[in-house]
Amino acid sequence: MPAIFPSEEWLKDLETQLNSDKRYGEVAKNWEGDLFFHIEPEGNLKEKLTFYLDLWHGKCRRVEYKPQPESHPNPVFTLSATYNNITAVLTGKLNPMTAMMTSKLKVKGSMAYMMRNVPTVIKSPSLVGLPRPEGAAFSPLALGYSVVVDPRKRVLTLSRKLPEASYATRLPLRMQRLPMVRARINGDTSATLAVDTAGDGTALSRHVARLVDPSTSPADRVRARVFGSAGWDPTAFLLPFVNIELASGVGLSDRSVVVLNLDAPSGLLGFNLGGILGQDFLQHYVVSLDMTKREFGLQPIR
Fold this sequence. Notes:
Structural class: alpha+beta
Mean pLDDT: 82
Largest sheet: 6 strands, mixed, barrel
Strand content: 35-45%
CATH architecture of the largest domain: Beta Barrel
Radius of gyration: 21 Å
Number of helices: 9
């Protein structure tokens, strides 16, 4: 019989299952950070409850039941929710990203990092299975929210209407399921790239790779081990000496870029998606995705 949430037995069971779950170990292998939970009384919970998790590279190093906040003054993340809301998240009735966006789950720490790693943080073996590696489908842009990501301050801003701000580069933003911008690849090839503020690296589609280099063949290239929402892409490989230009002087130069099979998202969009613009480029800018103006803004971080 599984332990009842949020008992001490449940927390110990969570620790055991996190440390024995190979899939979780793979998904969370890059996670570094401890978490302090505050659960407010509601429903079956009659008094405030706290618990602590120390997660590190796919393992749970320690758990504590009912610790005092002063015993962990500087956790990487502090999460607060009512009993009903946290239970809804753990049972899958409430999408964790939606919970964060609507303040049903309050997070103190880097929201951008948290949203990229929801499966690492919010997982209950006793109640639900492990979520997909990229979390449940949720896009604040699809709900009409504009987004500003500031890596320097580790701040993610979401708003129906963004305040006026100065951006050195402003480009047209297309929104069709995904936020997209146009770019030129190696000077001659035009491509539409999805802006992925949660993606680690920039990638090109096989279609664009063939246009850039007609001799491109996976058999002749260095294979890349890449994990996405559909799992491992066995056809992924590295294409060297790639230049990606968004605007004059803005882009990536002489990079080895991963080439992926993007046929599935291209089919959904109704056109060939040329690639993905990821954090290897975006981390150097304050990034604005303004849904009101349909504008993609970039301000270099000095």
